[in-house]
Amino acid sequence: MKNTFFAMMSRMKYIKRWALMRNSVRENISEHSLEVAIIAHALAVIGNLRLGKNYNPEHIAMLGVYHDCTEIITGDMPAPVKYDNEIINKAYKEIEKEAALRIINMLPGDMQEYYMCYFGGEKDQEALKLVKAADKLSAVIKCIEEEKAGNREFICAKNSLMDSIKKMQCKEADIFCDEFLGAYGKTLDEL
């Protein structure tokens, strides 16, 4: 059925993240995607102002908004399952492509091409790298919040995520970590 795209997007709030972990506070992909969009936008601004890049921060933010929306159909596959086995990872990527196509087909025909970049059609690898870095930073922030709540369940995940961010060699993410990440450990009064 056409014209159900936006109603489907509103269902992001029903998809829970971190399914294999004991959570102090539940997180859904709608909340996560907003945070990724905010961070991705910030990374693009950092790149433009500090590193002489020519990013489109608003476009990159929108890539962040839609980066996990196929999970409305697929659910959130836990990282240890998704990335542990090459066969599973390859199969899951195919499932994600099918889910993206299904979602795109929920738009009227004249809008589909415009939205395609958010569903696997983006060619700008630097923009995609910023969104990937923002996704990992959002996950680190979740780990920090869980640690603050006394939940030790996320300590290994945080360390692993920080290592993967360093390996990305994304200067924008490194700057964000140096200048902004520490504030996420503060209380409201300390902010």
How does the SSE layout of this entry go?
Elements: H1 5-9, H2 29-51, H3 57-66, H4 71-74, H5 79-82, H6 86-104, H7 109-115, H8 125-148, H9 155-168, H10 171-179
Helix pairs in contact: 2-3, 2-8, 2-10, 3-8, 8-9
Description:
- The protein has 191 residues and is mostly helical.
- The chain is built from ten helices and no strands.
- The chain has helices spanning 5-9, 29-51, 57-66, 71-74, 79-82, 86-104, 109-115, 125-148, 155-168, 171-179.
- It is globular and about 50 Å long.
- The N and C termini lie far apart (47 Å).
Which key features would you list for this structure?
191 residues, mainly alpha, 10 helices, 62% helix, globular
The count of strands amounts to: 0
Query: How do the SSEs run, as a string of H and E?
Result: HHHHHHHHHH
> What's the end-to-end separation, in Å?
47 Å
Q: How much helical structure, as a percent, in the residues?
A: 55-70%
Determine the mean pLDDT.
93
- Tell me the major beta sheet: none
**Uncertain spans, ≥5 residues at pLDDT below 50?**
none
User: What coarse outline follows from CA principal-axis ratios?
Assistant: globular
Give me the Rg, rounded: 17 Å
User: SS-based structural class?
Assistant: mainly alpha
Summarize the structure.
It contains ten helices and no strands. The protein is mostly helical and 191 residues long. The mean pLDDT is 93.
